[in-house]
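Worked example

This section walks through a single chain of length 260. The input is the sequence exactly as stored; nothing has been trimmed or padded.
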Amino acid sequence: MLDLDKLTPAQYRERYEALQDAARVRAASLSSETKFVNIKSEEVFLEDAIPPGWYANLRLPRGTGLRIINTSGTPGAAFFIWNKEEVSERFNAGDTMKLQWTTNLTTGRVLFSDMGRVLASIVADSGAGHDAIVGPNGPAQTMGRNGRDNLRTAAAKFGLSRRDVAPALSLFSPVAVDSNGVMRWRGNPQAGAMVDLRAEMDLLIVLSNTPHALSPTQEATGHISYIAWQMPEADSQDLCRHFTEEAARGFINNDGYFAK
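Given that input, the structure is written out below as tokens.
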């Protein structure tokens, strides 16, 4: 086993660059758009739609799936998750990108907690683009309902406070960096864009139907729908468990957590 404490600075740099190169090769080998499973009606235990400007707070058991559907191409949806059994463990946007060497969170990627464990996996994605850097809109962008306030209000329904809400993931939010290094909105996602998530822990979830902070339109333009269903158990060849070395270690941490 590699003893990281005995590596020289040069060896650390070599290891860093090797991990980065391997991650880029893996990312280039996978299309962001994947086939979505057909959800049977008997598997569904929760289904609803969120009107423009509103939010939902959900409890999702470990091993179940959540399909989120942007039915009308509205410009973004704010999303945040906690470990239901220990709410101090929550989604960490920085680690999710850093540990997987990418800002492109799509099929095969996972959502890391701030304790090095995997809260949820992205098992299918239509490729609309999801942003974990800028975040949802706030009072500065609109006089109406906004993502930041909605996330805090929804968290309060779980008995949580403002301090429990960290930087969120913005679903259906295609942004890119221009030649001047400035992040720009790339246009609204297509109507019907979807993403499927699998809960890797018992989760508390908040989902706000409010625009991304960079969207030229600062009012949601349609409904966001969601379906929660009982998924088949992930097998040993599951893509998300092995797509990156970092994710594999995250799942090892999960296994140790649940073995207690």
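What to look for: Helices lie at 9-28, 93-98, 147-156, 239-242, 245-258.
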